[in-house]
Request: fold
Amino acid sequence: MFKSQKFFRFKKKSIRVIKIMKKDYKAYLGGSIIMLILISAIFAPLVAPADPYKTNVTKRLEGPSLQNLLGTDSLGRDILSRLIYAARPAVLVSFGGIIISVIIGIILGLLAAYVGGILESIILFIFDVIRAFPPIILILVLLSIIGPSLLSVIVILGVTIMPRYGRVVRAETLSEKEEDFVEAARSLGADNSRIIFKHILPNIFASVLVLSGMDMASMIMWEAGLSFLGLGLQPPLSSWGVMLQESYQYIQTAPLMILWPALAIMLTMLGFSTFAESLRVALNPKLNQEV
Amino acid sequence: MPDKILKINDLAVEYKNKGKYLRVLQDINLELDSGEILALVGESGSGKSTLGKTILRLLPDSARIASGSIFFKGKDICNLSEKDFNDQIRGQEMAMVIQNPQNALNPVFKVGTQILDVLYFKSKKQKNRKELKKEAVEILKKVGISDPEYRFGEYPHQFSGGMKQRVMLAMAFISNPSLLIADEPTTALDLTVEAQILNLLSNLVEEYKTSILYISHDLGVVAGLSDRIAVMYAGRIVEVAQTRVLFDQPNHPYTEALLNCLPDYQKTEELQTIPGQVPDPGNYPVGCNFHPRCSYSFERCRQEDPGLEEIDSEHFSACFLNDC
Reply:
């Protein structure tokens, strides 16, 4: 019973957020791009016009045609199909990495701010150590130790950007826990778990969500960059980074080929960041008083 | 004589500042009968709120109780573990209404949801929220919120300050506490709303038979509300008396000075003030804390510390003038 009640309240709140976002063109733009990416990722075999792995050397490096809408690559594979299949790792890396860093970040940030003392120093030290390295160096070193694969890219990216969330959560928790309503709740007998889950987390949730929306875009770029360097997904698996890397050698003979993965990356980033922006406004009751 | 609901003995509270402990409360002795409204008045910085927070154990980590004890219903609450205190007393037997209602409600939840939460936890998670909704609307109605059904679904930013304070009062009274600590609940409100809230408070007190520790800096407000008044200055209680007695025969020079500061619309002369400022903790003068601002101070005030003494039945004051 309790669970369904909780769900009911959550649903009601989401309806309100959706109501606000319905009036925002950014939400439509970002949302439709994200939907497009998600549909391509989930239903790739149904959406893709051809097999992304089927090579046909006689038709290599062709321009757009009716048969291959975006042309073919150096092995004669259909670029559109590969683009669509490549949405899968992009989605996996961005969502997976963000989920990992948000979960670890919230736990560590809350602990640091709420418990304080030595624990806080230790947690902040961990954050500082991770942040002390330029992210690209840290990621490259870790990847070369663990070995490139989809899973290791997700975990390493998640851990590398985790301090961002940890620090935001800690800072927001520190300020929220001094708020009057926390003191009021405490004086009415709320215990720590109720204060954390009812009064602190819901108030910092919006910033974490918006931050993660922005980071999803950069996750996709990281994945593309790593694959481009040969440290992310390994061919023949398709990823936008792998495709960039494959096509940049042919930039003189088939210049259009590099455009498609680049466009896909750009579009996805645009989608995530506009959606995140619209979400930021919708989630903050103070920014949408007219509703 | 009715039972004492709260008994504070020789309480001293210290704050840690730059590695040193500064005393902010000293020699606090206070008793509160059940059903009584005791007002705690004093200037800003006199330690009124600190005393209120000490009783509810809401002091920040940098503060500690240096000595003394607090008995609530005969039980020493200083020695209770934090968990026991939270489970048994805070929010159950004691509640607090804080000064600034503007931020007292969580901005991301609807007002009704927050009332439901308090009801829900009070019912020990036994009842479900649908059943409680009726109760919550009823409570909103009781504290004088018009159109409670509609207001139930609104967010705190859609409420005015007075309405928020009404909601806070409602939430504090849900658990039917024996002691309510009201920390300047009307300071942030304008005068007409203040009168309404005070009215509501006295109605609630009558209905629930709650004792109240009413913290305020405004003698005018507490005059009509309280049974007894304790005047605080620089971390000490300097005078305790029945409200009527305190107004008619103030004993301590500080009380007298405070009463002189009350505006009187019939007089045209300038508003009185007390020269000087409340000293910071750590900079308290030797002797009586009030002597640098006191117009009656003499040699002994600069050397010795007057203790609170009973000068009349139920009338306590800390001043050497009484010995003369």
